[in-house]
Amino acid sequence: MGGRPPTGEGCGAASTRRTSGSASRLCARRLPVTLTFADGGEETAAVRYYRGHAHDPMSDHELVGKFRDQAASVLTDADTEELVKAIWTLDEADTTAALFAWTAIGAG
């Protein structure tokens, strides 16, 4: 599903949202999620919205943790922390230079 909620007819209680002038149906039904543990045990639960969805947002702490996990393969710990600081203090910065220095455009 690529992180997108199911779409189409038969979704049960659905809401409609306009995106770039077109309507998209978003399902509000519960979707089963099954976790399989190392010992072979399984646990299944139904979730309405995945973690990080607008209706189940991540906390700032969770978001930074996810960013650190993703950045670990391409940045050093020190560089990751510097970038996290640049992002969280962007509203206090005089320019966006500190942030764009981390992009391919800024490196050009």
- How do the strands of the widest beta sheet line up side by side? 1-2
Q: How far is the first residue's CA from the last residue's CA? A: 35 Å
State the helical fraction: 25-40%
From the spread of the alpha carbons, the general shape counts as: elongated
Q: Secondary-structure element sequence? A: EEEEHHHH
Question: Main β-sheet: number of strands, strand sense, barrel status?
Answer: 2 strands, antiparallel
Mean pLDDT figure: 75
Radius of gyration: 19 Å
Helix tally? 4
**Derived structural class:** alpha+beta
Q: How many discrete structural domains?
A: 2
Q: Approximately how much beta-strand content do the residues carry?
A: 15-25%
Counting DSSP E segments of at least 2 residues, the number of strands comes to 4
Task: Provide the fold topology.
Elements: E1 14-19, E2 22-27, E3 31-36, E4 42-47, H1 60-71, H2 77-88, H3 97-100, H4 104-107
Antiparallel strand pairs: 1-2, 3-4
Which key terms come to mind for this protein?
two-stranded antiparallel ribbon; disordered N terminus; 108 residues; alpha+beta; 4 strands
